[in-house]
Write a structure and sequence with these properties.
mainly alpha; 49 residues; 2 helices; elongated
């Protein structure tokens, strides 16, 4: 997941003028998405016996 987000951020950084603005606006969404993914992954694990 980190690799995919890094690739998207790299592509956005390559776009002149509008890229850094989009990156600035989308970074919080990427952070929330990754945190929610990790939380759901943690909750879906079976409880240790």
């Amino acid at each position: 997941m980190i690799i995919v987000i890094a690739i998207v951020e790299f592509i956005l950084a390559l776009i002149p003028l509008i890229g850094p603005i989009l990156l600035f606006l989308l970074t919080p969404a990427f952070i929330i998405f990754s945190a929610r993914y990790v939380a759901l992954l943690y909750e879906s694990a079976p409880a240790p016996a």
